[in-house]
Amino acid sequence: MAQKYLLELLAVVAVLVFCGLFLYTSSTMEGAEFAGSDNVGSGLIAQLSGKSVESFTPLIPQYEPPSGEIESCLFALQAALGGIFVGGVFGFWLGQARREIVTENL
Amino acid sequence: MHIMEGFLPWQWCIVWWLIALPCLAFGVWQLKKVMEKDREALPLLGVTGGFIFILSSLKLPSVTGSCSHPTGTGLSAICFGPWITSVICAIVLLFQSLFLAHGGLSVLGANIVSMGIVGPLVGYTIYRLLKDTSVNIYLTVFLATALADMFTYVTTSLELALAYPAQVGGFGTSFVMFMAIFAVTQVPLAIVEGIVLALVFKYIVALKPDILIRMKVFSEKQINAARGEA
């Protein structure tokens, strides 16, 4: 039993440890803002080049989501698209496997 | 791992675009070949590509007090190789540059090189090295996917350190500073991603072993042994 579901168990443990780490970090670390590491990286670029973050302007004009709401909407859309592919294909495969069992029994 | 639009000097943007474009062209050519040869492989492409869409949209908190996202590229690299994977990554990264202001068109080349080329290439190399050994196939998938994730961020650090060497200590010092931001944040994420994708691979092995065997992802013996275990 434990052997059969070893990977599932490991995945659950890993996710739980990950959540625990987050709770620990967010409650003990001072100044932990959980901003994107992309932005932290941009801050370091500004520091290294001696310019302010604001002075970096896009080389090619780009659309920026007007608010965090719109941004999270678009990210959810991206994840949903992926989810449709993954769920759809697994369902298709399950159906295929079942059909094979049925035709074998005929 | 996104370098933000405007944060990379245009000379470097061109360098990374020049590296990315031939890899993408090769990927498109390979993808066309797979589509003509084996229609049954398309659902597998849907699953592995789907995970790139899902995982790269999840911003997860990490031990450094900042957030980062997994890449999900390892599974596709194992099944289809790094070049086809880079095409899927390019689609995701293009979407994010156009609509989400994550990355941008000028830095897209650099971001494709880190997430779509170097990461998958590292994952694919690990997989090829371990493929015909006695190492458990799920351990192989774990290592390949986790390291594909890690090396994406190592590459981002490298790209930024090359463009912004520190005044004292130069490239090396910068590289260490960028690694402290990108790579350290990524360690727990990469481990979780590796375990989750190994689990996903287990379900693919359970449902569609024939595709994996026909595409020679793993040998029939290895797949059957894994099915016996599971």
Quick structural summary:
Chain A has helices at 6-28, 37-49, 68-105, and one strand at residues 35-36. Chain A has 106 residues and is mainly α.
Number of helices of chain A: 3
Q: From the helix content, strand content and strand pairing of chain A, which structural class follows?
A: mainly alpha
N-to-C CA distance of chain B? 35 Å
Please write the CATH class name of chain B. Mainly Alpha
Keyword list:
heterodimer, A: about 110 residues, mainly alpha, 3 helices, B: about 230 residues, Arp2/3 complex 21 kDa subunit ARPC3, two-stranded antiparallel sheet, 9 helices, about 75% helix
Question: How would you characterize the overall build of this protein?
Answer:
The complex is a heterodimer of chains A (106) and B (230). The mean pLDDT of chain A is 89. With 106 residues, chain A is mainly α. Chain A has a domain at 63-106. The relative contact order of chain A is 0.04. Chain A is 70% helix and 2% strand. The longest helix of chain A has 38 residues, at 68-105. In chain B, helix 3 (74-80) crosses helix 5 and helix 4 runs antiparallel to helix 5 (108-131). The longest helix of chain B has 38 residues, at 170-207. Chain B has one domain (10-59, 69-219): Arp2/3 complex 21 kDa subunit ARPC3, CATH 1.10.1760.20. Chain B has a two-stranded antiparallel ribbon. By secondary structure, chain B is mainly alpha-helical. The interface between A and B is large, with 58 and 72 residues. Strand 1 of chain A pairs parallel with strand 2 (66-68) of chain B, so a sheet runs across the interface.
Topology:
The complex is a heterodimer of chains A (106) and B (230).
Chain A: H1 6-28, E1 35-36, H2 37-49, H3 68-105
Chain B: H1 10-37, H2 41-55, E1 60-61, E2 66-68, H3 74-80, H4 82-99, H5 108-131, H6 137-163, H7 170-207, H8 209-214, H9 220-229
Antiparallel strand pairs in B: 1-2
